[in-house]
Every structure is written in C-alpha cells, then in structure tokens.
Amino acid sequence: xxxxxxxxxxxxxxxxxxxxxxxxxxxxxxxxxxxxxxxxxxxxxxxxxxxxxxxxxxxxxxxxxxxxxxxxxxxxxxxxxxxxxxxxxxxxxxxxxxxxxxxxxxxxxxxxxxxxxxxxxxxxxxxxxxxxxxxxxxxxxxxxxxxxxxxxxxxxxxxxxxxxxxxxxxxxxxxxxxxxxxxxxxxxxxxxxxxxxxxxxxxxxxxxxxxxxxxxxxxxxxxxxxxxxxxxxxxxxxxxxxxxxxxxxxxxxxxxxxxxxxxxxxxxxxxxxxxxxxxxxxxxxxxxxxxxxxxxxxxxxxxxxxxxxxxxxxxxxxxxxxxxxxxxxxxxxxxxxxx
Length: 339
What we know:
Blueprint: H1 7-15, H2 25-37, E1 41-48, E2 51-57, E3 63-68, E4 79-80, E5 84-86, H3 90-109, E6 115-120, H4 128-133, E7 142-145, E8 153-157, E9 159-168, H5 183-196, E10 201-202, E11 206-207, E12 209-217, E13 227-236, H6 241-250, E14 255-258, E15 262-263, E16 266-267, E17 277-280, E18 294-297, E19 312-314, H7 315-333
Parallel strand pairs: 3-6, 3-7, 7-18, 8-17
Antiparallel strand pairs: 1-2, 2-6, 4-5, 5-19, 8-16, 9-13, 9-14, 9-15, 10-11, 12-13
Helix pairs in contact: 1-3, 3-7
C-alpha cells in the first residue's frame, strides 16, 4: 500500500496486522518499507529483541509527528462499512499513523519537507519505546503526538500513580473475632481514609481523581482474612511526594503501601490562535518525548472506544485529522525561521 496520501488505505493495511505490545515488528516493517520506497530516509532504533522504533524524514525535521504502533489485546480483525474502519488499533493509534503520513505528504506537496515521522513501540505497557526514543536523532523544534483526542488539540495530560496496598492479618474463626485480626477490615479502613483525603487541583490539568480498581482477600465468610490487597490508581496533576507521604500516613496497622508504577503529568506548549483545546486524563508516550521540543497531542477518534470490542475510527474524522495535522504543522512552523 504505497499511496501515502490515502489515509484509508494505510489505515486498512496497518489494522490488518496483529501487533500487540511486544510484537510490533509487522507494523514497523510495513511503514519502513512503504516510506523508504516513497523517498524517505528511515532510521531504526532497537528497543528490545525484534522491536524497533522507526524515524522517517526527507530533510532534517523541524517538526515531528509521532504515535505508537502497538495495540492492546485481544486482536480484532479489520472490517469496514461506509462510515468507519473497524478493528484493533483503528483509533489507537494506527489510523492516526496513517493520517500523519498523509499529512506529511500534503505538506511535502506544498514544499514543506521538514517533517519527521516517529513510530514507537510499547506505548500500551510502560512506553519503553518512547523512553528509548529520547536519545534518537535528528529532532526538531516541535513534536505532535498522536492519540485519539476527538480532533481537539491537547495542551496537557494528567499523570498517574498506582497505589498498592497489602494487608496482613491473623486468621481466626469468625465466631471468635478477638482471637484474630481481619486483613480485609484493616484494608477497607485504609482505603476509606485514602478516599477521604483532599486531592490536588491544577488550573490547567484540573482535579486529581482516585479509582479503587482491584481488591482481593479472604478465604471464607466464617474466617477472619489473613491476607488482603488492593490496587488504586490516582490521576495526578502535580508532584506526588506530598501525596505519597500522606497515603503512607493513612495506612493502618498491618497495611503496607507501595507505588510500583508512576507516569508523569505533562503541560504542553501554547496553542496557536484559533484552536479548540483540551486536556486529557489518559496516559500516553508524550511525557517521555519532551526532549523532542515543544510538544502537543492531537488525533482523530475517541478514547471512549479505544481498547473496546467496538474500536473504530470514523472516516470523516480521519480525513479531518489529516487536515488538522497539516494545519497544526503549518501554524507551528510559521514560528520557525525558513531554511
């Protein structure tokens, strides 16, 4: 599929490939071959065995479009109707990759060849590709990361902090609770105190939110639980040292606290005049790409169908996304002195 201006065709070709995190090579290889035949120079950066980031450009880039080629499981085969292209990765984020390539072609046709295309692995599981890409060159002054923002320009992104709670009790017959200690009771008391703590607010990013996502524990209704655990996720809008200290202080006796996963929040550059802007709460590669310059996030599709059985991208939104990528690149590069 070598008609790079055809966003539909490249979307179909990418969605037809099964590329869960860790097995992205088919998408990387397809893009590498397609872009090389179109006259791009491509640079592959090894992330781990069989997994490469891909950077493509015709001239040293002043602006780079980036997105990821991995998807969450399970694979959903490509399908299509008059209005939408469906399948795993259609909106998160293979359709966006195709839109970026089409936008770069439109810009090149107008004489603007200082556009780079960066395709990353591993976004869906810790952004290992983006972390490694911080050392990749050449870079530009601007980076536009592709995520399904409903074609609104995102100028900020909340971070996230996972909170793991592990409670240890002492088993006993429930008829004689004084002979034991319930790990579940200690865990629930700790969770309730955490739920009641004040959460930060940022003028741009908005308020932090807390979700109690997973609770495990107990052996039977007539036994005091010897063990229990929970995982909570906090969407963050500021530095977390103070929050971590507070959470540790709220843990009851026998409850251990850890923070195994933390993703940073991000505040982007100033939006060009006339753009409809937003702030997103979901995680992406963007906070790990700040070495690439002034960063923005934009893309067709909605996060509400990403990762679901109904993942799709509307064709009209995809075409509008191409036009918006062209417009954003034009607006941003107007700040850059011509070469």
